[in-house]
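STRUCTURE REQUEST FORM
Protein name: Exosome complex exonuclease Dis3p
Source organism: [Candida] jaroonii
Requested output: structure tokens
Priority: standard
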Amino acid sequence: MNDKKRLSSGLTVTSKVFVMSRHGGATKIVREHYLRDDIVCYSKACNKCSSLIKSNPQGEMPNIALSDVPNKIEGSRHYIVLDTNIVLQAMDLLENPAVFYDVIIPQTVLEEVRNKSFPIYQRLRTVVKADDKRFIIFHNEFHQDTYTVRSRGESINDKNDRSIRKVASWYHSHLNDNNSSSPIKIVFVCNDKDNRQKALKEGIYAKSLSEYIEMLPNADYLRELIPSDNKSFTIADEMSYQEYYPESRILGGIKNQTLFKGILNISRYNFLQGTVQVPNFKKPLLIVGTKNLNRAFNSDLVVVELLPKDKWRTPSSVIVEENTVDNDNFEDDEENEFGNTNSIIPDKERLLLAQEASKAINLASSDKIKEEEKLQPTAKVVGIVRRSWRYYVGQIIPSSVSSDDGGNASKYCLVMLMDSVLPKIRILTRKGKELLGKRIVVSVDSWDSKSKYPQGHFVRTLGDIESAEAETEALLLEHDVEYRPFATNVLKCLPAEGDDWKVPENLDNGDPLLAKRVDLRDKLVCSIDPPNCVDIDDALHAKKLPNGNYEVGVHIADVTHFVKPNTALDTEGASRGTSVYLVDKRIDMLPMLLGTNLCSLRPYVDRFAFSVIWELDEHANIVNVNYMKSIIKSREAFSYERAQKRIDDSTQQDELTKSIRILLKLSKKLKQQRLDNGALNLASPEVKVHMDSETSDPGEVEIKELLETNSLVEEFMLLANISVAKKIYDAYPQTAMLRRHAAPPSVNFENLNEMLKVRKNGMHISLENSKALADSLDNCVDEKDPYFNTLVRIMSTRCMMAAEYFPAGSFGYPDFKHYGLAVEIYTHFTSPIRRYCDVVAHRQLAGAIGYEDLTLSHRDKNKMELIVKNINKRHRNAQFAGRSSIEYYVGQVMKQNESVQEGYIIKCFSNGIVVLVPKFGIEGLIKLEDLGDSNTSLFDEEKFELSFTDFQNQKRKVGVFDKVTVDIKSIKDEITGKRKVHMLLK
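Status: completed
Returned output:
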């Protein structure tokens, strides 16, 4: 029931009355919804709203408003009202600078988009903030003339559709009945046929997206960018996937545990095999074959149904790559035992798969129990909860472009994506020939159950394949890294003085926060960073105290002095989550002025800092700790190498050098304490690519050298993070920004332990606790090969769980533990210039010590959940983007320099091996056809060995952990257009 009354202030309040029954009783609930008559239309062409704004003493038209001279269609100037489906389906078109200006987004649409796709909602908010696009949000739910009440029996979707139509109708009458300078047409753009027909009956000028695009002068260009219609690609009986279960069946199945929900991970070595980890099973559920994968993409949140036990099996030992698929074959395929299509797999690999199928079904009785222990439960995808679809980068497959392509006729072609675990995308384009050899961006629109491939549309061209600009932008898009320049409203948040900003000389200038700062400019502070570092987050100092203990300080750039909560700058930093470091560039989380100047703890200048100062005894035990906002003046900015040389130079006896030696001495004790507690010393293949300073071309690759000074800095940053974590958790036990690292399940190490047992005389990695794991790693030593221990640590790292950020209230205290560091509680505090987590930790620490009040968004658990979800995703993406950048540039280096290097076999398949080359920190796949005669090969799954006859007619046997010599060169994959390292056994 609804009731309206008008208040004396001019507001209208509508009351919604609900009656809830509980335990036989009835409770009346009244909710009031306030409506306004002073919400303006934000059009510069509207005299009425302009007068209303001017009558307000503080009123002025916002910078972003609908133009008084909007673009014309059919001879009339027009504004656009968008339906929700247009935003969800065509966000890339809305962002395109060549189309869509003067757009009205009803509040109803904004809320529907937020509920259905938060990533698209964020992109929409970004477009709304762009000065040149003129997108405005109209709060129709609070305007007394556009507010709608849900009718009895009306669905929420129908009510929302009616609300949006009412906005279009109101704008038409409001603008054209109130002395506007010239008539302005309101175009309601909607792809819902039923909603569009209702709009036309109500006198609203309504068009579908394609109809609207055809009315524009640049329709020829824009036609390519329209999201595809499933029907335009339908090929009768091309494929027959199972239809997804209805929502009611999915919800019921999940509730009674006949269906399960989880993230799908496709194997990087077999695109026809994926896994879904669910809590109900110790081992991941195995999804094998195109039919069972059922149109799911890597990283989709899927619903799966368990298959019968007689179909459970071990993971495939066959490498199957997407680029082995017959690109032009669109006919039905007879399926083999695993749901794989026979025609798309090479004969040898199909034979191996068939052998695996036979083995899984007909286990020998003597081996049955042993084999069944290795079986994994299998399942099939029966629903998609959330698609992971985003912009994808790839190239058009030349063989899919007809030789007679040309003219204005649109024809379909296939796009092979750079990510090998993803399917080809089918697009409709007139530019097939024109786009050959180009790196292009596509978007996925749908995947019909009768279609072999998902349908998508062309978005834009990045440039020629292998050009540095196109490949760099491609990897940023592939890993969803925001790399566009900072918007004007973000830059306006920076200090007006720009580069000339300085710390105020007078600390007693009436600013209460400045007066709270502690002046530490007398401390011998210095920073130690990689060479040429300009965004200096941290600095340190140390001195011996009269009582024999030591004062040690970690000083962190005070980013939150400049990045205030709930500003455009803060929102942008929260959205980006982290800085991204590529070989040739850095994608900043915050504008460069902050990162490389005002916040950076550069030497010889005063800087604001957040300091943690301990008193440590001679064993590096904490006696006490203090936290303070401070002012510091760094004495020097050292590189790791330069600091190490200064420490090692016995002639250097100045106070600054002595303080660094104190830091080194204490850091060694801190590290030993951690190792004694079970901290892990894992490894990853880290390399550095040197770039030519003049040409920016990659020169050579070298393994990063780690010095004692690297460890010195690391230990005190860890100590600061641990200390801050304890402090903010005490103050904010529900929302403290923390970081955890869960213990790995034993199943993660099963395969590695089996390899060690068989290939290395019973070596074993223990998993009782982190101390046992660390000790067992120390014992994995091959006296004949010093690198073997590092190799095992690299492989162990890949078996570990990923660390993650979380608000304290999400877990019980025992689950806070950081397994790798062997500490009970941990956070990130020491790099606020490049990580948003640290920004939040700074604000919470400032609140904990009473420096300033903490913003509500960092005290609300639900809001903190959203923050950590985003920064966890951004952190992972940044890591992958950095690795991809190194991989690309190593490929460029090897393009000119063929090399022979030592490598180690880390995986063994029935039709190939994977080799890690420490020199370059890369791994490469060597397929069976490049090893020798595939017809003579024999794969011993129990011994992780592959036997074959090489091209010199010599019998060879290779297995996991073997040291091998490989010939390395860089080749261009003609299908993906991606340059990759190609290896051959010597």
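Reviewer notes: The first helix runs from residue 47 to 55. Residues 749-794 form one domain.
Form closed.
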